[in-house]
Amino acid sequence: MSGTSRTSIGTFTVRPLDPLKDAELLHRWVTDPKAAFWMMQDAKLQDVEREYLRIAAHEHHHACLGLHDGEPAFLMETYDPRYVELTGLYDPEPGDVGMHFLVAPTDRPVHGFTRAVITAVMEELFADPATRRVVVEPDVRNKAVHALNEAVGFVAEREIDKPEKRALLSFCTRERFFNRHSEAARGAAV
Q1: Contact 23, 48 (CB under 8 A)
Q2: Is the pLDDT of residue 53 over 80?
Q3: pTM strictly above 0.70
Q4: What does the pLDDT look like over 24-43, one tens digit per residue?
Q5: Residue 74, strand partner residues
Q6: CA gap 109, 116 in Å, rounded
Q7: In terms of Cα–Cα distance, which of 158, 162, 132, 137 is closest to 149?
Q8: Strand 133-136 to strand 96-103: parallel, antiparallel, or no bridges (unpaired)?
Q9: Which residues have C-beta within 8 Å of that of residue 2, sequence separation ≥ 6?
Q10: CA distance to 41, 97, 186, per residue, from 137 (Å)
Q11: Distance (Å, whole) CA 86 – CA 136
C-alpha cells in the first residue's frame, strides 16, 4: 500500500509499518488517553513491538503508518475477516476487508482532520479493485467513531460479542463510500 490522497488540509500517504523502527512512536500513540478504545493503555514499548511484529508476520493482517504532508499522523490496520478479528462472528463475503485506524494524538487539533484520515484510509482500501466492502467492529461505546463511520458510508448491522469488547459490526460498500464521498465533495464546493 502506498497510495496518495490529496485534500484541502494536506496530502495523505501510507507506507508499511516497521515494527521496530516505528514502535516508540506507536507506543506514544496507543498509550495516550485519547486512544482508550485501542486497548493498549498499559502497554510497554516491548508489548507494542511484539504486537506489531506479530501483525507483520501474519499472512492476513497488515499495519501501515499514515503520513500527513510527510509526517506520521495515523495508524492503519487491515485484515482478512475470514481469518482475523471476526472469524465465526459473521458470514464474510468475497472482497471483504477489515480495517482499524488510529489518529495520532495532538495538542493542536485541525478541524476535519479525523474525517480526512478515514476518507484517505477508505480510498486506499478501495484502490484495490478486489475490495468490495470494508468491515469494522468498533467498541459500541465509541460514539465518535460511529459518527465518522456513518459519515463515510458505513451502515451498522448489529452488535456482536468479541472476546475483548462488545462491538458494532458495520459495513461500507465501494458504491456507498464513493457516493458519500462525492456528496461530501459537492457540499464542500457549494
Answers
A1: yes
A2: yes
A3: yes
A4: 999 999 999 999 999 899 99
A5: 66, 103
A6: 13
A7: 137
A8: parallel
A9: 13, 14, 15
A10: 19, 12, 29
A11: 9
